[in-house]
Specification:
single chain; 225 residues; mainly alpha; 13 helices; globular
Length: 225
Amino acid sequence: MTLDEALALLNAQGDADRAAGAAAYHKVDRVYLGVPNPVLNDLSRDWRAEMDLEARVALADALWQSDIHEARILAAKLLTQARIRPDEAVWRLICSWVPGFDAWAVADHACMAGHRRVMADLSRLDEIEAWTGSDHLWTKRAALVMTLPLARLNFPKPEQVAARNRVLGWAAGYVPDQQWFIQKAIAWWLRDLSKHDAEAARGFLDVHGREMKSFARKEAGKYLS
């Protein structure tokens, strides 16, 4: 599958009205084709089955560099898979995308691809921790969004508990940052955590909740009694 072939398939599924709506909604200056997400899901599923890993990484890289909204989402979906061995090339590509994040939708799809790679190798938290000091909003946010699976574990192993606590430390350091997307990311992490470890989520809010924006505090405690 070449980039030209992939883009031709995407263009064939596009819709001008949907594209205009997406451009107005996302408010980021790039090309929108108006391809529905279920179509992107189907394409990514079929291509993952048909292509070897090296070809998928190459196509994902090319799709991302096209800077087309749906192509970037499809790039992430091509690499969203629990079991990939070896996965270092996938991880390196995902990390290379992070400095270019500029909107939540594309960033979140890329972070979902990153979820699996983080959980496959928790030593990658060392690299992610450097993002927490970034001046780039979306890089800083990605440190929490890409580690969300740690908040969702029902029976974490000791090393996963340690990793979870490490990320909670990052979240605590984010609390003074009043940017909406940062506060939203803190709230998202805590809300998900509260479903699996209510005590930890409640403890965080007891200490830091008063410094959080009210909407974030409310969302973080949504499932806490």
